[in-house]
Amino acid sequence: MTSTGQGDIQRCVPYFPVGDVAHVGRWYRDVLGFACEYSAGEPPEFAIYSRDGCGVMLKRVAAPARIRPNEAQGGTWDAFFWVRDVEALHAEMAGRGADFVYAPTVQPYGMKEFAVRDPQGHVLGFGQRWETK
Q: Does domain 15-129 have CATH number 3.10.180.10?
């Protein structure tokens, strides 16, 4: 199905429940290089952190022990970001102390990707199309 130009989807941002928006937000800023685009409340109850037009929403929940990232349910990521240079991004995040789930790996489905785990346990994948020979 193709777009008609009416009602085009402009952006998609995953929504992550967290125990402490300020703490997790600082991690997104300091480790992933995201910037706070919006924050509400003091202490923050909700925030949007983004980088290069891609973001995540963080929402404080009363019972963070009940949060179940996809990995805990047999999944792989809670969000996936396509990037231009997966190796450069990996090196940048490594220099910032990221907790890697796995290092850049060429996958049989034509992607080279890595994944990081945020302080709440959400897993974010980053990858680029990669020709396998």
A: yes
